[in-house]
Design goal:
Radius of gyration: 21 Å
Strand order of the largest sheet: 3-4-5-6-9-10-11-12-13-14
Shape: elongated
Strand content: 15-25%
Bound molecules: iron/sulfur cluster
Distance between the termini: 60 Å
Order of helices and strands: EHHHEEEEEEHEHEHEHEHHEHEHEH
Number of helices: 12
Largest sheet: 10 strands, mixed
Structural class: alpha/beta
């Protein structure tokens, strides 16, 4: 028996090609895509405007399957977190953050992460594998229609959309799983699927410079960069990828990206670590980094209070320090926000994703993948480097 094709893996063009293989016209692909991504249908019999012969063909050859839900928790503040099974003992997390005028879904792109940022609990569990397109878009598909079901909102374009913004900021480095990430992005933007505007979809990267350029050409959406440090020595210790792509290269890539981006600024994420990167001098150094004459980078800063986890050996900066740091950036004319910590009671805050699934990761596979990445990006890739204090 041949394996069923998971239609969640196919982008609009691939779905047209798939329908052609079944002897169907391109408009059938559009109908099918709407059933899947706008109505959340997974049962071909429910697709009533498709001919019965096509439904029968699909039933024997295709499936619509998102990763299955292992746990589903809702925090007191409304944040909802799903732990999803992606097979072979791996699981990823998807987090929905409701706000007054929008609903943001934080999506994972890899099981684990090889970048190994010092302050990130996902990084500490190592890298397991890249997610497929179906596993990435399947998070949005599952979440949108689960949220509607919970609220009694009908599926389809007439029902009130629950997810208005997507951030690829969950487990993994999206730009190290480039093709599936971009295919999933294209589905998010497609009018016959989710129809999200490019401005409302954000890819967050730790700074994979060549892939930032590639993204600008293939699917420019809003860009967030995990900066976390104001100079190379400090960033080498916090984000090991910096040794491969130091700050000058990263800033230049950000400037190039802005020529194609749907927004006229880059968002810099900055995790506030007590006594490590949170002094006034660091703030001033950051201002100099991004306001550097012709080499300036139009940007916003998002300061993230660190969520401590036991192995990190790091502490959260206190609120007064975070405010003083933000003030220096704001006095320099930089829009600066301090991220509200959400979902603390369900471990859904940034850097806590996957904290509860560490034992599921396959050590053997992780080591192999790490060796591959080190070959590709240099021997320091993924190493824990002591942070100068
Ligand atoms: S912060 Fe992002 S890039 Fe760094 S280890 Fe965590 S998931 Fe990976």
């Amino acid at each position: 028996m041949t394996a069923l094709t998971n239609l969640l893996d196919l982008d609009p063009a691939q779905l047209v090609a798939y329908c052609a293989e079944l002897g169907e016209k391109p408009f059938r692909a559009k109908q099918l895509q709407r059933w899947i991504h706008q109505f959340g249908a997974s049962d071909f019999d429910a697709m009533t405007d498709l001919a019965k012969s096509l439904r029968d063909k699909l039933k024997s050859r295709a499936t619509i399957a998102a990763p299955s839900v292992i746990t589903d928790h809702t925090s007191a503040d409304g944040t909802r977190k799903w732990l999803l099974d992606v097979g072979q003992g791996n699981a990823v997390e998807t987090v929905f953050i409701p706000e007054e005028n929008r609903g943001t879904l934080c999506i994972s792109t890899q099981a684990g992460c090889a970048v190994n940022c010092r302050f990130c609990s996902t990084g500490k569990q190592g890298f397991s594998r890249n997610l497929t397109v179906g596993e990435i878009i399947g998070q949005l598909w599952m979440a949108e229609f689960e949220l509607r079901k919970t609220k009694g909102i009908e599926p389809g374009p007439k029902g009130e959309r629950q997810i208005t913004n997507v951030v690829m900021m969950g487990m993994g480095e999206p730009l190290l799983n480039f093709e599936p990430t971009v295919t999933a992005l294209k589905l998010m933007l497609d009018d016959n699927a989710y129809g999200l505007s490019r401005r409302r979809v954000t890819v967050s990267t730790s700074g994979v410079v060549p892939m930032i350029d590639k993204l600008s050409q293939e699917c420019p959406v809003a860009l967030a960069v995990s900066l976390h440090a104001s100079n190379d020595a400090l960033r080498d210790g916090l984000v090991p990828l910096n040794r491969k792509y130091p700050l000058a290269e990263l800033m230049a890539a950000c400037r190039r990206y802005l020529a194609f981006a749907p927004r006229d600024f880059i968002t810099f994420e900055y995790c506030m670590l007590d006594g490590v990167n949170d002094s006034d001098a660091h703030a001033r150094e950051l201002v100099a980094l991004v306001q550097n004459g012709e080499d300036s980078v139009p940007c916003k800063f998002n300061l993230i209070p660190f969520n401590p986890f036991p192995e990190s050996g790091l502490k959260r900066s206190n609120n007064a320090r975070i405010k003083a740091f933000a003030q220096i950036l704001m006095d320099a004319g930089i829009v600066t926000t301090i991220r509200k910590t959400r979902g603390d009671d369900i471990d859904a805050a940034c850097g806590q994703l996957a904290g509860e699934i560490q034992d599921r990761t396959k050590v053997q596979e992780r080591m192999q993948k790490m060796a591959e990445y080190q070959k590709k990006f240099g021997k320091n890739f993924g190493r824990i480097v002591e942070v100068p204090r």
